[in-house]
UniProtKB/TrEMBL annotation, chains A, B:
Recorded superkingdom: Eukaryota
Segments forming domain Oxidoreductase N-terminal: 8-125
Name of this protein: NAD(P)-binding protein
A GO molecular-function annotation: oxidoreductase activity, acting on the CH-CH group of donors, NAD or NADP as acceptor
Species for this entry: Rhizophagus irregularis (strain DAOM 197198w)
Length: 363, 363
């Protein structure tokens, strides 16, 4: 091989609100000459195998808008993608060229800074963004699972539920956006721990999936019921842990249903992310519950746990749970770089049950 | 002594909004015959020496109004005072008659269930509401300090700052309602721990007191400045701990100024307590900061700490700090049962700097 094709997805325009495939993304047909490409110190060429389509990438696509100076965006300014640039995500890659002494050709890595492209030339010392995949595990676990689930994707819900939620047998957990990747995993781990697990989702199909495949104790379609009534019905003993993915009015209602000393794991507040004017955000009126019920609320991001003992503990437990069938992981795998933008937009529109993954190459 | 006077303050009408002395309270002139009074098992007669005038008592004066069924009031239904009943508070008393084998006549106790009256006949086994006062300490510390400050009153701010706020040298703490009893103590303890201490209060006199007597690093009158601007000016490095006494719009603005991993000690949200219609409460629109900055928010009540090792640790430290002059405790002592209602209403109206105490009898 000398010069080969290296298609990739670049940002065509900064989306406002929900991105559209044709308006905001462009598939570009490029080439790469791997043999003759000269690597700088500690550089890499990766052959990308699986891309994970994650909601956080949406935050990197917006234009830089200074808000309240002390407000921290989930995507910092330097992570924002410029128009014409390849979009950056996470996934599984094979190292096919490097001069970094800590890596060798043929290593499989979970990489946090992959381009949405077939081959990535990583120009920085990327060691802190690369994590080795133990090939021995591949006899039991599909390689695609390492594009997110076994690695960073599952670590966040696992660690936050365990160390912020502090689940105890017999308690009730309520999970919003429960059919999403995070919600599914949180609910299943909570079942393993012996909790009553109640989830909300946006379609009857998702509710069926939660009840019949994941064995949630209760689930409801939030478009069809009034949340306050639903929580009386499905959480008869109140809520001990709220796994918060949506924010806004949902949080306002849930606070009224929390028990004394309930824990709120603040994973995301997705209902508020597309509201750019701070005055238009939903105002939560029930915060006195924090004082009167001695609630505990904590935010986190996955990087708080990466590289800690909690990460090792997670990988050990999750692999056992997958092997023993205690955790069901649902993924939909699309084929080819041509399907990345469409899969990403469908995921943002909530079409997915479980994780969306794109397979870029055979391994 | 046989039959003696025992004046007390009863509830005349349930206040809505701010109570008024003549409308809602009545001084009743009663008698008590201590010698001939027959005690039931484990009963007591107390001679009340000092009453503490505390904001929480206001919560016990309202009519029972079922709100959201799962909402917990700070005062539970059984704590609510009925019209014509003696109001219940905390303070220092001398036991003058008892058949409880764990107590003897002459013991001084900090009692949580005193009537606002000169003598109280305690009909229940009140052991869990009585705490012995070590008379050896009285050579260094005025007895009035035991009516709240050294006991329950100071324990709450001490423990919550230490165990929820987790103060570290060099950090910045912002305290709302900083000239109140809780705020003063929190600010002074934070100074001892080496923090930059910034407080807000509602009058220039209070601001002067915070700056000149308590040596806060900065303080401002919230009626005269815009909070957002003030926090940029007085907290140049952002806020690491917010000691929350007021809630509502203050909390909304403070969240924007919090640093990564800031802690919010949710002591009270007094700005919201007099708003009875849930729809009229202030809606806080900046909660996304919890996720993006990984904030930690926790509510508590003092009973979470009572009887724990933290309480012993508190009493030891606070007594050392008072003796060494590191903590200034400001109290205003009124004389006589006739002044209880007026002092209480003045305190609710924010007239006090420091603690209001009523002396009922010499010791």
């Amino acid at each position: 091989m000398t010069i080969i094709s290296n298609k990739g997805v670049v940002l065509k325009a900064h989306p406002k609100g929900m991105p559209k495939v044709d308006e905001h993304f462009e598939l570009v047909d490029r080439t790469i000459d791997i043999e003759n490409l000269k690597l700088g110190e500690n550089e890499f060429v990766l052959r990308n195998l699986y891309l994970s389509l994650d909601p956080y990438v949406r935050l990197t696509l917006k234009e830089h808008e200074p808000k309240h100076e002390r407000t921290i965006n989930k995507a910092s300014k330097k992570q924002l993608v410029q128009i014409g640039q390849i979009i950056i995500g996470a996934g599984v890659s094979e190292i096919i060229k490097t001069n970094n002494p800590n890596f060798k050709v043929g290593d499989l890595v979970y990489a946090l800074n992959l381009g949405w492209e077939e081959y990535s030339h990583i120009k920085s010392d990327a060691t802190s963004n690369f994590f080795f995949i133990n090939k021995d595990l591949l006899k039991d676990i599909p390689l695609s699972y390492f594009a997110s689930f076994i690695k960073r994707g599952g670590l966040a819900p696992y660690a936050s539920l365990k160390y912020i939620g502090k689940p105890k047998e017999g308690e009730t957990i309520f999970v919003s956006a429960a059919a999403g990747f995070v919600g599914q995993l949180v609910g299943q781990i909570a079942k393993i721990k012996g909790l009553r697990v109640v989830g909300s989702a946006g379609s009857d199909e998702k509710v069926d999936y939660l009840l019949n495949e994941l064995k949630f104790d209760a689930a409801f379609n939030y478009n069809k019921v009034e949340l306050d009534k639903a929580l009386y019905e499905y959480c008869p003993n109140g809520i001990d842990i709220y796994y918060e993915n949506v924010g806004g009015e949902t949080l306002e209602v849930v606070l009224n249903h929390c028990n004394l000393f309930a824990r709120i794991v603040a994973c995301g507040m997705i209902s508020q992310y597309n509201i750019t004017d701070p005055k238009e955000k939903y105002g939560v009126k029930t915060l006195e519950n924090i004082v009167t019920k001695r609630l505990y609320i904590q935010g986190f991001v996955v990087t708080d746990y990466i590289g800690t003992d909690i990460e090792k503990e997670y990988e050990k437990e999750i692999i056992e749970w997958i092997k023993s069938g205690k955790i069901i992981y649902k993924e939909t795998i699309f084929d080819g770089i041509e399907n990345v933008a469409k899969g990403f937009v469908d995921m943002l529109n909530g079409k997915n049950i479980g994780k969306y993954i794109v397979k870029l190459a055979d391994y």
